[in-house]
Structure formats: C-alpha cells, structure tokens
Amino acid sequence: MTQLRSVCVFCGSRPGMRPEYADEARALGALIAAEGWRLVYGAGDVGLMGEVARSAQGAGARTLGVIPTHLLAREQGRRDLTTLVITEDMHERKKVMFMNSDAIVVLPGGAGTLDEFFEVLTWRQIGLHRKPIYLLNTRGYWEPLVQLMDHVIGEGFAEISIRSYSSLVDSIETLSPLLRDALK
C-alpha cells in the first residue's frame, strides 16, 4: 500500500487585491487533487484558503483542515472536509498541519501566513525537519520577503544557508514538477 502524500498550504484568509491570487489557489487545489495528494490547510472557507479547498475538494482530493476554536466563526470553518481537527490555539494548529504534511506551499497572505512560514522556516533552520517549503511568488508577491531575508543575512542575523531552506517559484507550472519530485 502506498503512503498518502500531503501538501500543507499556508495562505491568506482574505482574497487579496489581484484575481491571480485566487486563480493560483484554485490551480494548486486542482493540482493536489489530480496528483492524488491530500490537502492540509487551515480549514477556513474564506479568502485563498477557501479557494484552494473548494478546488481540491471539487476535484476529489482528500482534505485535512485544522482550525483553532476561536477562528471557527471568523474563518467560516468548513465541516465537510475528509478530516477536521479543532485545536485550542494557533501554535497547535501549525504543529498539526506541519506534522501531517510532506511538503509546504505558501501562497500570498498576511501576518498569519508570515507567522506560519517563519515557524516552519525556523524549524528547518534548527534541524527539526527537511520538508520542502515553496513560496508561490504570484505577481512577485514574495519579492519584499526575499529582500528582507537578504537584509537579515547581510546584517549578520542569519547564515546565507537560510535562503536554501525555501524555494521561490513563480507559477503553478513551475511548482508542479518540483512537488511531484519531492513527493515521490
């Protein structure tokens, strides 16, 4: 029996200002379903979270949603998922999502998405995992983050190796073969 591979998606609970963000979220959900992978995400039905989940579910993917009790109403927690886990807090949410995934994809998002990205990046930096982390750079969204990381490195607060712990990809077409290879 083959092991079910899972992709954790961190992304905004808002749609953002550009329609391309939602387009890419839906394309990622469709890719996850087409490859027979499971979507692991924040269980919300709003913003990019909702887009990726509806797309993945609509195309037949299994889904694992993880949401803290205090966000059930705000993020309109989906209850029709394959598996729904309700946590006590955000830290537990991130841990459950991470532990149940084989790769991480970060779509555009706000402070929560940045928090999720930096947590898994830090875990990688200190040697707690070797899972691939992909930043989907739709319309250059993550360019300021890359500049910030370069600044942090340049100012001596991180080793240059921190840049190798995540991969910046510009489109689903670029991401697809990388994920396929990582999830073999």
Low-pLDDT regions = none
Measured between the Cα atoms of the first and last residue, the distance is: 14 Å
Question: How many helices does DSSP assign?
Answer: 6
Please give the largest β-sheet. 7 strands, parallel
What proportion of the residues form beta strands (DSSP E)? 15-25%
| Order of neighbouring strands in the sheet with most strands | 4-3-2-1-5-6-7
Give the helix proportion (percent range). 40-55%
DSSP, total strands: 7
Mean pLDDT: 95
Instruction: Assign the structural class, choosing from mainly alpha, mainly beta, alpha/beta, alpha+beta, or little secondary structure.
Output: alpha/beta
Q: Spell the H/E element sequence.
A: EHEHEEHEHEHEH
What is Rg? 15 Å
User: Which overall shape is indicated by the principal axes computed on the Cα atoms?
Assistant: globular
Explain the overall architecture.
By secondary structure, this protein is an alpha/beta fold. Helices cover 41% and strands 17% of the residues. A seven-stranded parallel β-sheet has the order 4-3-2-1-5-6-7, with helices on both faces. The model has no long low-confidence stretch (mean pLDDT 95).
Annotation keywords:
184 residues; 7-stranded parallel sheet; alpha/beta; 41% helix; 6 helices
What is this structure's SSE topology?
Layout: E1 6-10, H1 19-34, E2 38-41, H2 47-58, E3 62-68, E4 83-87, H3 90-99, E5 103-106, H4 111-125, E6 133-136, H5 143-154, E7 167-169, H6 172-182
Parallel strand pairs: 1-2, 1-5, 2-3, 3-4, 5-6, 6-7
